[in-house]
Amino acid sequence: MIVNINIGLLGHVDSGKTTLARALSTIASTAAFDKNPQSKERGITLDLGFSAVVVEAPSRLKSLAPNLEQVQFTFVDCPGHASLIRTIIGGAQIIDFMLLVIDSQKGIQTQTAECIVIGELLQRKLIMVVNKIDLLEEATRAAQLQKLNGKLRKTLAQTSFDSDSTIFNVSALEKINIEVDLFYLLNIFLISHFVIQDLLDNIVSQVEIPKRNKDAPLVMYTDHCFSIKGQGTICTGTIVQGSVAVNDLVEIPAIKEQRKVKSIQMFRRPVQTAAMGDRVGICVPQFNPKTMERGILTQPGYLNNVYAACIRINPIRFYKFAIRSKSKLHITIGHDTVMANMILFKSVNNKPTEEFNLNDEYEYVEELEPTINSITEDCIFALLEFQTPILAAENATLIAAKLDLDAQSNCCRLAFWGRMLWCTHANNYALEVLPIFKVFKHKSKQGFIQRLVNEHEIIVENLFSKQGNREIYLGKQVVLSTGETGVIESTFGQKSKVKVTFMNALRPETLNELKGGRFGSVKVLLNYKKYIFNKQLSLVQ
């Protein structure tokens, strides 16, 4: 038996990820090592690249799975350019393990930090690889690497990663690595040169057999699609859920058609079945590959378009901007990125933080300030209304980013993430579904007493505008700044006045103020809840 483990190579542009993937791999796919003509022309990775190596399974894993003979590592080479962050996010969601590649001369850069954030929120295991050590001056190389390694460990200490995580100092081009150990008391560096096989051995020593949900309905993220004359259309990608076999019927939601699987290959090796975690090419009867360059294959009928979703927000502390209701952000699910309108709200029932109930009441939140993002104990939810419907499975991970920020700015563009707690497949959800949401705003109006009628009645002015509809407020409670509670009994006059009555007589001190003509010293307050999605429930106290 062979098990496949997907290892992502992430990092800033031009840190040597593709060269490292080539050094570690013995098997190349049709999408490996920047074969894209534009990648060759520009000298950078523009899309996900895939290559692999097969090693003997370590005894540690064989003891857990006696039938296990080999482990295949599929290397997912992610682009590093800032403008390709959505491709990076998509690639990170299909990996089990992460190699963070860092240029030894430049250290941690903007996209390096964003990759750390992505790995952290997806809870991937991490090895840091400091690359291009052959470009450092030999006389000062050890000192420079020791200083950089120290900075990297300090950075890791601020994350959920272990600050003692392995750091490899390598030259992917020269296929060597330098192990740097510091004897703090003696301040002596021991430098040893090994072939890059040491890095691969270390990966083998750290990996675990991933948990695979093979019994769930099939979901496969496809990243390349092309036709072969006489055979059909080849969809290559990673199975993220379930399994597939030759002769199975699969659905291509993007074109709303179904096809029978003619054959399956795993790095040019024919197989009859494949399961979650496997990188495969699936051949199906002909369709135009341009209609699905990047998309999803599923079990028929499993996925439908999601028009809106609700998540609990997990803010990313490096995001230095306010997160505001009624703003727009880019939302990435799998390989797809779409714009979404956002409404924030918070629980008022002290429910468990991950629980969302459509029947509960929630309070509208105008914005989360950056300083609050990392320290708030409130359970903040976001209703995301997608401008373009998106395909997503239940409990899918969503990552929100502000990708219209200047890609060259020294800012983290990743705002927050969360798992889908609720979604709707109704394309007219604004009429059918949104009115069910009990999201309210606290509203307050303030007026003044215009005249004292008697100890039980007053006339109030300026509580409403002259053009406002006073009728909808009849029967609502008001509170005087002196503490008495009354009810709006009726409108008064032709403009904005209303009559307020009190079951209990006004307090003597209040009456004295009013009888003395000091009407401005007593304020009239009207507090109520306004439901933002349901006009029929718009005024509730």
Provide the structure class: mainly beta
What percent of residues are in strands? 35-45%
- Total helices: the number is 10
For the secondary structure, the number of strands is 35
Principal-axis shape: elongated
Q: Summarize the main sheet.
A: 14 strands, mixed
Helical proportion, percent range = 10-25%
Q: Tell me the CATH topology of the largest domain.
A: Rossmann fold
Number of domains: 4
CATH architectural type of the largest domain: 3-Layer(aba) Sandwich
Instruction: Give the termini distance in whole angstroms.
Output: 65 Å
Unreliable sequence segments: 33-46, 181-194
- Computed Rg: 31 Å
Estimate the mean pLDDT confidence. Answer: 86
The CATH superfamily of the largest domain turns out to be P-loop containing nucleotide triphosphate hydrolases
CATH C-level name of the largest domain: Alpha Beta
